[in-house]
Specification:
Radius of gyration: 31 Å
Oligomer: single chain
Order of helices and strands: HHEHEEEEEHEEEEE
């Protein structure tokens, strides 16, 4: 009779182990919060992920860090915002550094691009005709794909959506308010 108790206890322990494995296996394979996950939708196309606000100092730092990749030994330049937007550059003629200043008024376009309306161009303190200089720059330099010079309108358009920040992620200009030191960009994702 003693042997029968061991058989029953062994079968009971075996049943408990099998039940325990079955319950754990069921819990591990069951999806959690499936009702909530089924309600989550993915937006197709391009959508706004975040809004980024910055000030003049932060924007100047970011722009010039990015422009560092486009410098060469013929011309070096930096872009900064103060009460005006200024592209300050130097280029070499006969081994002499010549300063170039281009002043702009920036505007955010509806497509997220930035329109830089040229207000004046000078070499040192000598003013130059904007159309002529823009035509020269357009023909003499290999500009990045995202920069378009419209010399007749005296504009430079920076197509921000063409500048990839990460895979399928880019910026759009939303608000460029130099007077109040507020610049807002939309972080977009395709």
């Amino acid at each position: 009779m003693k042997n029968n108790y061991w058989k029953y206890l062994f079968l009971l322990i075996l049943a408990i182990n099998i039940s325990l494995v079955a319950v754990v296996g069921f819990q591990v394979t069951k999806h959690r919060d499936q009702e909530v996950l089924d309600k989550v939708s993915t937006i197709k196309g391009v959508n706004k992920v975040a809004e980024i606000s910055t000030n003049t100092e932060q924007l100047n730092t970011a722009i010039n860090k990015y422009l560092g990749d486009f410098q060469d030994n013929k011309m070096s330049y930096k872009f900064y915002l103060s009460d005006k937007a200024v592209l300050e550059g130097t280029y070499k003629i006969f081994g002499k550094d010549i300063p170039l200043y281009v002043y702009f008024e920036p505007y955010a376009l509806n497509d997220g691009s930035v329109n830089l309306k040229v207000t004046s161009i000078s070499i040192g303190t000598l003013s130059l005709p904007a159309k002529t200089v823009l035509n020269y720059i357009k023909g003499a330099y290999d500009l990045p794909k995202f920069v378009t010079i419209k010399s007749e309108k005296q504009e430079v358009v920076i197509d921000l959506p063409q500048i990839a920040i990460a895979k399928d992620t880019f910026l759009q200009a939303n608000k460029l308010d130099m007077k109040n030191d507020k610049f807002v960009f939309n972080l977009m994702q395709k």
